[in-house]
Amino acid sequence: MSKLKFRDFLPALILALICGICVFLLAGTYSLTKGEIAKQEEAGAQERKLTIFPEAKSFEPVHYSEAIGNELKNRGIEPDEVYKAYATDGSILGYIFVNTGFGYAGNIVTTTGIDVEGKIVMVIATAASDTPKLGKEVEGRPFLDGFTGLSTESEIVLNKDVSAVSGATISSRAATGCINHARESYLVLKEGGLI
């Protein structure tokens, strides 16, 4: 058997060097753009909140105790974010719940507005990574407007209270699940005297 020489390893070394340079460049690009991406995400979140409560002056995060946090986690309904929407005069207009679920091919994020009487004001959904022309249809107003005015007192049932998007039943079910989680979280926080 012949001895291996440096030139035998040369292609592997070149490939490793190219991979290392690519990783370095990707990491550098990420570090340069992550601040701008975060700003754009924050601006998008603020825009969604203002779409739901256009008369709101400010949105303040709702903080809850560890015990309530554990209850929400144990029930599998903990929201990603919760906000109180305040009017100019300081009165509370309602609450915003942000929840994430998995649709047919990716995450679906719902932003649900609930008024002080416990009615759903509006829902905005984003399904950025879901299937185009099917799963992404849950972002459309025809589907989401079906939730407007529904009470938080009882579970929202797909194809009874709200019609599923034709051809996107899995994503419709995921979005409805997120909205039900927002509804249930609202009830837990209300019972705890936090909203």
Can you tag this structure with a few keywords?
195 residues, alpha+beta, five-stranded antiparallel β-sheet, 4 helices, 43% helix, 19% strand, elongated
Description:
The structure is a single chain. This protein is of the alpha+beta class. It has helices at 6-52, 66-74, 141-144, 169-191, and strands spanning 58-61, 81-86, 92-102, 107-115, 120-126. The chain has 4 helices and 5 strands; from the N terminus they run H-E-H-E-E-E-E-H-H. It has a 5-stranded antiparallel β-sheet with strand order 1-2-3-4-5. The longest helix is centred in the first third of the chain and has 47 residues, at 6-52. The chain is elongated, with a radius of gyration of 23 Å. The termini are far apart.
Concise summary:
The chain is an alpha+beta fold.
Secondary structure: helix percent: 40-55%
Number of strands: 5
Rounded to the nearest angstrom, the distance between the terminal CA atoms is: 78 Å
Radius of gyration: 23 Å
Number of helices: 4
What order do the SSEs take from the amino end to the carboxyl end, as H and E? HEHEEEEHH
Report low-confidence residues grouped into runs of 5 or more.
none
Mean pLDDT: 88
Structural class: alpha+beta
Tell me the overall shape.
elongated
